């Protein structure tokens, strides 16, 4: 018994590191007070980097009677999740201090949310799936309303909480149906049952489960919380929402559908394709009428999640690999966008409206260049990072016979190109509005992340894409090989 427990704790060391470290940091913050904010932030970043190292170098296998799985897919997901969370802390530290809402709880909440996201990536049954989702969601509910004196932030947190409870209900109802028909919570046992029995009740449970998971990645038509939360929550918190939780949820969706329901691919692929098509339309056309930059990025994320789901819908190893490549490059572009938003302000107030970018080339030419590169990358302009991301998922979809769905995605990309090109046009060709002063000095950490992201999009991506493709291929091929 004791050797089994030690082995289980060894396998789950990344999450244990974050959980124990988060509690220690909470005690330090409570004793040291608000003066410890920067110190706690630095330790939190170090803790997340350490957890990444533990995940990458740790053993592979299963623990807790199959409820926890450490395989190459989980390792890849955790590395991307933990490093993304660390970047979100770096972005948030400076912003919180400038906004005078710096609290030591901010980095600790991200650390605890990361522990839940790591659990999602390693879920091996329906119980660990739910525990991981709720563990990370509880921290994110608080982060959404972290700026308590701001009405929009409070509204964002409340909407996210209420709609999150609804999605949890859908997910639990689906899980109960699956358990009722299969008699098991474990993914491998569910897969064995689903391969031999295609009952209607099991399919209903699967659909409800997919609906609950689709909420977590803000895929349409379960996106209703996304624009309001993106607009109201603090910008560094939105940067976190747009990256790490989406990676965790996408890995969980791949693990659940490709693992527990591999024999029901024809059924769940239809649901994913429908969600992808709706996401294309909502993300492309919804973004056309937006005036707020963060709401625009919300609709952009909805469309991009539709593209990523195409990789999973393919139901192949190449499809999972394409999804991982897409999410990695998507995260890099998103951090670049949000870092630029955090680096821009006029008269001490952040730039939030799209129209406020007019004439940016005069005040901040380097930032304008970086934003241009990132906009073209998300648009999918070759040879930038976004082009390769879409190339992989559309290729996987076409190889699986879903070339018409891929064509619909290409059409949506053309429509979405309008609002990306509008940003470029405002920066380079429109004059600065009268009576508007020059942009303020940019925070060094935001500038650094923005420029690094733009540099990776072009030309460094040409070199790095091979590495990303290789590690994503190892993760997809080794799926379930713990």
Automatic annotation (TrEMBL):
Span of domain NADH:quinone oxidoreductase/Mrp antiporter transmembrane: 123-414
Subcellular locations according to the entry: Cell membrane; Endomembrane system; Membrane
Transmembrane regions listed in the UniProt entry: 12-32, 39-61, 73-92, 127-146, 158-181, 201-225, 269-289, 296-316, 322-344, 365-388, 400-421, 449-468
EC number: 7.1.1.-
Membrane topology listed for this record: Multi-pass membrane protein
Main localization, broad class: membrane
Reactions accelerated catalytically: a quinone + NADH + 5 H(+)(in) = a quinol + NAD(+) + 4 H(+)(out)
InterPro entries per UniProt: NADH-Q_OxRdtase_suN/2, ND/Mrp_TM
UniProt KW keywords: Cell membrane, Membrane, NAD, Quinone, Translocase, Transmembrane, Transmembrane helix, Transport, Ubiquinone
Pfam families hit by this protein: Proton_antipo_M
Taxonomic superkingdom: Bacteria
ATP-binding among keywords: no
Self-association and partners: NDH-1 is composed of 14 different subunits. Subunits NuoA, H, J, K, L, M, N constitute the membrane sector of the complex.
Family: Belongs to the complex I subunit 2 family.
Function comment: NDH-1 shuttles electrons from NADH, via FMN and iron-sulfur (Fe-S) centers, to quinones in the respiratory chain. The immediate electron acceptor for the enzyme in this species is believed to be ubiquinone. Couples the redox reaction to proton translocation (for every two electrons transferred, four hydrogen ions are translocated across the cytoplasmic membrane), and thus conserves the redox energy in a proton gradient.
Descriptive protein name: NADH-quinone oxidoreductase subunit N
Source organism of this protein record: Brevundimonas denitrificans
């Amino acid at each position: 018994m004791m050797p089994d427990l030690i082995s289980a704790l060894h396998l789950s060391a990344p999450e244990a590191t974050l959980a124990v470290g988060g509690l220690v940091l909470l005690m330090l913050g409570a004793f040291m007070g608000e003066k410890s904010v920067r110190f706690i932030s630095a330790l939190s970043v170090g803790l997340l980097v350490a957890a990444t190292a533990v995940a990458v170098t740790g053993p592979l296998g299963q623990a807790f009677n199959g409820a926890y799985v450490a395989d190459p897919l989980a390792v890849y997901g955790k590395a991307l999740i933990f490093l993304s969370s660390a970047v979100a802390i770096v972005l948030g530290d400076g912003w919180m201090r400038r906004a005078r809402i710096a609290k030591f709880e901010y980095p600790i909440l991200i650390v605890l949310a990361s522990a839940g996201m790591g659990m999602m990536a390693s879920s091996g049954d329906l119980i660990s799936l739910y525990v991981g989702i709720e563990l990370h969601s509880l921290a994110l509910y608080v982060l959404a309303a972290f700026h308590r004196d701001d009405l929009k932030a409070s509204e964002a947190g409340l909407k996210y909480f209420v709609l999150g409870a609804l999605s949890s209900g859908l997910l639990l109802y689906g899980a109960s149906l699956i358990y009722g028909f299969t008699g098991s919570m474990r993914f491998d046992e569910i897969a064995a049952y689903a391969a031999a029995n295609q009952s209607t009740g099991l399919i209903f449970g699967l659909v409800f489960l997919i609906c609950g998971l689709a909420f977590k990645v803000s895929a349409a038509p379960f996106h209703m919380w996304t624009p309001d939360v993106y607009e109201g929550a603090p910008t560094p918190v939105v940067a976190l929402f747009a990256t790490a939780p989406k990676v965790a949820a996408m890995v969980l969706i791949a693990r659940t559908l490709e693992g527990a329901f591999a024999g029901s691919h024809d059924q769940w692929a239809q649901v994913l394709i429908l969600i992808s098509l709706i996401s294309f339309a909502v993300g492309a056309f919804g973004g056309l009428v937006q005036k707020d930059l963060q709401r625009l990025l919300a609709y952009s994320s909805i469309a991009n999640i539709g593209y990523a789901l195409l990789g999973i819908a393919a139901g192949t190893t190449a499809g999972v690999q394409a999804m991982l490549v897409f999410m990695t490059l998507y995260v890099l572009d998103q951090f670049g966008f949000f870092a630029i938003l955090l680096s821009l302000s006029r008269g001490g107030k952040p730039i939030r409206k799209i129209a406020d970018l007019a004439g940016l080339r005069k005040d901040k030419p380097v930032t304008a260049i970086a934003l241009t590169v990132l906009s073209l990358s998300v648009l999918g302009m070759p040879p930038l990072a976004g082009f390769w991301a879409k190339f992989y998922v559309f290729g996987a979809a076409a190889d699986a016979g879903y070339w018409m769905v891929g064509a619909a995605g290409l059409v949506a990309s053309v429509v979405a190109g309008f609002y990306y090109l509008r940003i470029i046009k405002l920066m380079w060709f429109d004059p600065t509005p009268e009576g508007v002063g020059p942009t303020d000095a940019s925070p060094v950490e935001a500038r650094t992340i923005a420029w690094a992201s733009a540099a990776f999009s072009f030309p460094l991506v040409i070199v790095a894409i091979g590495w990303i493709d290789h590690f994503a291929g190892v993760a997809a091929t080794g799926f379930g090989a713990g």
